[in-house]
Amino acid sequence: MTNSDDQQIEPKSASSTAGIGRLRVAIGLLQGIAAWWLLRLVAPSIYRYPPETHDHARYWAEQHPMIFAALALVTAFVPAIAIVETGRMRRKSLATYLGVAGLIIAGLAAYNIWRDPLEYFGTNGGVRVWPSFGLSFCTAFGFFIVNQLLEHRERGHSLFAHYADHFEDGWMRGFQLAVSLIFSLLVWGILELGAALFDLIHVTWFRTMIDHNWFRCPALAVAFAAAVHITDVRPTLLRGMRNVGLTLLSWLLPLVVALGVGFLIALLFVGLKPLWATRHAASILLWACAITLVLLNAAYKDGDPAAPPPAVLRWTGRVAGPTFLLLALIASYAIALRVQQYGWTPERVLSTAVAVMALIYGAGYAYAAIRRGNWLNGLEAVNVFASLVIVGILALLLTPLSDPARLSVNSQLARLTRGKVSADQFDYAFLRFHSGIYGSRALARLASSADAEVRTRAARMQATEERSFSARGEPNPALTEPALSHATVYPEGALVPEGLKSAPQPVFSLDCLRNGAPCEIYVVPYGASHETVVIVRPGRVTSRQPLTFVYEPSGRLFQRDSSGKWVDTGGFNRLDCPGVAAALQAGQLVSVRPEHDDLIVSGVRLEFSKLGRADDRCQAAPQPNPQPGADRSRDSSAPAHMGPAFGKPGGM
Questions:
Q1: What is the pLDDT of residue 527?
Q2: Whether the Cβ atoms of residue 246 and residue 171 lie closer than 8 Å to each other
Q3: Is the peptide bond before 50 cis (omega within 30 degrees of 0)?
């Protein structure tokens, strides 16, 4: 077969080849300079914990986040498109394409920041300036497809003709980009090796140079551009690698199909109930569809009837189509059931989009498997049509038309309005933290609702600054309930001291001091002076049993400082050992001195830290001997019990 790729890619002369190479390297250099300039406009570290207060003027990126995000995404993708398509498309067509692509990418980036402007990380969060990973991935995937379709049209072919060119373009460009990215990383690895060599002889200028963005960004961009050009003008080097990779992948198809058929047969005997009990059946089934899709296309290649695959692959390929369709149907049914029960969430919207694509591919491949003619040649039209549908779906998901957050917020509000979910079980945290500006606006409307319970819970969630690390999509009623409403105080009759709720929180905040998360609070005597302290043993709400205690093996100690305020001074381990919680609940404890003293060396306190073995961490420790002057009527081996005076600590 004549390869049109060679005819299109290889320039007619060495001077033309060199000119294209110089242009690509120049574009890469300009891209690197632009990236370096953009990094100067953003704070050196956006992700901080705890977040730093801005005692300096805000960076330009934080003042204009949508513009910065648009510039960042355009800088990442438009030059890369120009590097790849230079020499493949006519200059006028390429210039028009780059202009339109730049406007689309900038608009998508600006909308991505507008719909979710805050970076929820730590207290109060901050301004988000970088486009999300999901947008970046979908943009790259969408424009990869568009590039190949436009190249096909540039050759004068209709979209559904010359499938061999589609195959050549798609797989070759995929391998080319992967190899170019790997080459860029290898270049940087070698530079790091050079810096390490110079460090051995205390020459630091090279390390200092490569650690600066003014060198790093242009170097990586130029390396990528050079790799694209090298693989472009020597396609035979890449084609051999691609063919080997496709051949190996194709021989995985029988294994995947056998597993899929075995799974479907097993379902006939065990039913769908165990499948639904996993609560993530749809995602696994869709992954199985995606893997089958890649392997089947690896076996089909360009569909050349003169070079058919071995018989085992041909028979497996005919079974793969119907198997693919059945798996897609089961996944779609699973998603439909979840939506009917719990409404839409962003994850379910995205899963539905993937399921729609799986159904299109599955139906087309199943039809190709049963139709007469060359082996699976109906697959060609399905692949081209599906690529157009993918671009359309991405355009819907990344814009307000079918934004997953907007659809999900509307769905959840409708369920609350119709009474399908009660006010105490509604997921207010989803509106606050997981649905961007659409959720924030909806939460504000609920905070002024006529329903008193809805209004109260929405207002509490509006005031919540730190997100809870509970399961996504699992409503946690405790988040919108008053602080300590599900805290159990021990011993019996003890009261929570005044001011504990306003104590500064540890690094990982105790939810029960901020909302209705469950926890145990022990009001106990501590130390030689028997001062009243509080030990807070945090719990979390499980996804299957709301308000069920699932305790962490640690507790935080709160003491009064010199001004009388409660402060977190540390923590206790081994609270999960058998019998410990029960003894604490009964107030049975005794204060002991550490087994090992700290050291003070040259005015510096060296704190001793004992390393215990995991197999003896819950063994009983030796009991302390009574101190001189202590009450010897009490057995020294028995724990000291709190008296009635500790029932009301501090007289509160």
A1: 83
A2: yes
A3: yes
Domain range annotation of the chain = 41-160, 162-250, 259-397, 404-480, 487-592+634-651
Neighbours of 651 (CB within 10 A): 6
Burial letters 176-206, b for 16+ CB under 10 A, else e: bbebbeebbeebeeebeeebeeeeeeeeeee
Question: What is the C-alpha to C-alpha distance for residues 582 and 572, in angstroms, rounded to an integer?
Answer: 16
Residue 443 near residue 451, CB atoms below 8 Å: no
C-alpha span between 331 and 336 (Å, rounded): 9
Asked which of 231-240, 243-252, 546-555, 634-643 is least confident by mean pLDDT, the reply is 634-643
> ∠482-127-434 over CA atoms, to 5°?
50
Helix, coil or strand: residue 31:
helix
**Contacts of residue 329, Cβ cutoff 8 Å, sequence gap at least 6:** 359, 362
* Burial zone of 22 (CB within 10 Å; 0-12 exposed, 13-18 middle, 19+ buried): exposed
pLDDT digits (tens, 9 = 90+) for 559-618: 988 888 888 888 888 887 878 888 888 888 888 888 888 899 998 999 887 765 544 567
Using only the alpha carbons of the chain, give its radius of gyration. 32
pTM of the model: 0.81
Asked whether the CA dihedral 388, 390, 393, 398 is positive or negative, the reply is negative
User: Of all helices (H) and strands (E), which one includes residue 532?
Assistant: strand 531-538
**E-assigned strands of 368-512?**
487-490
Distance CA 389, CA 137 (A): 17
pLDDT tens across 75-125, in order? Answer: 999 999 999 999 888 899 999 999 999 999 999 999 999 999 887 654 445
Indicate the pairing of strand 118-119 with strand 554-560. unpaired
